Amino acid sequence: MSLSRRQLMVATGCGVIVGGAALLKPHDNGAPHNAYFVGLTQALKKAGLAQPTLVIDKHALEHNIQQVQQNIAQKQPALPVRLVVKSLPSLALLDYLSTRLHTQRFMVFNLPMLSTVLAQYPQGDFLLGKPIAALAVQEWLKVDANRAALPKIQWLIDSIERLNEYTQLAAQFNVMLNVNFEIDVGLHRGGFTQMQNLASAVKAAKYNSQLKITGLMGYEAHIGKMPSILNMQQRAWDSMQATYQQALAVLEKEGYDPAQLTLNSGGSPTYTLHTQRLTLANEVSIGTAFVQPFDFDMATLSQHQAACFIATPVLKALDHALIPAIEWADGLRRWWDANNQHGYFIHGGNWLAKPVSPQGLALSALYGRSSNQELWLGSASQHLQVNDYVFFRPQQSEAVFLQFGDIVLFDKEKSQIVDKWPVFSMSA
Known about the structure:
The protein is an alpha/beta fold. Helices cover 33% and strands 21% of the residues. It contains twelve helices and 17 strands. Strand 16 and strand 17 form a beta hairpin. The radius of gyration is 28 Å and the shape is elongated.
């Protein structure tokens, strides 16, 4: 029986609609763990670790150490490294890096952190990475052992007002304080911006017998994120160096020898620039680049490898990720999008981190973030079961590393966890 023209048109239209819908239908984005994460899964299970765990990959860590060593060696003499403690909040991790890099220079960001690292490295060299409130320093100075350690500590001074507060502290406790001046080299996060103000602070400190000027600190993290278009990165670099030169000239005018000063700059996003270009810095600060979390994937760190992950077990694997109150629409929803077919409630969640394995998981928009049992949606292609692991990559290290208890060290060649590293009690 032949179709009428009307029937043919209707059939054609339906075909077009169905075909169009098929084109719009989401593809399955899922994939199972690759060999690396299969090996890490086996190592975690063998070690009996069935809770959210922060993992450092030993070989990736070593790779990043070697990259730092190769980069800083481009300068002759090689630029010394100051380890940024907030980004490496574990004495064992610091020990590992300190030994490999032959440095006991540390940048610390609060007084409990200073006390902890100072006890481990009594001969270390400590530079504060941010100004500390005078009230907190006052309480810290009441401890005899802390006052005895003052020759090894450089306090960061960002204003004349801060200098006056520290001057009063030095007088109150009858001690000598080393002061390092923070200068704004373009990041605009504080520090001296006007050279006349810096000059006034330098003169005030110079003629105070209880203050000793030890150098400058200028942080230029913004440069690492500058686009290459219109030569913006180079221009920002040149501006930073010019400002640093002006500040250094203020110290030289008062008779200070740059060779005897701590001229700190750099940071993980920019340390490689200091090794490739002319710089006034005589040391660079590096922390996060050793573990390379997600937010530090930038051109200046392209040689570095991701060395830290969060592993957490799947608590519940649901064949049907039902939506409360509209369960009746579940079949249509799962038919339409294979990536919504299965639901996986993990142990914990709500971390500053992004999922990396298995591929294709997406956070449930309905349930949202949860630090208890976070729901991630996926397809059958992930092959996840209860007691399997989902792996995340931290976006940063300084806060995330402190959320899991001991850090575990993974040796992929041995396919096992080879060490556990306790973490600090607090971050920066």
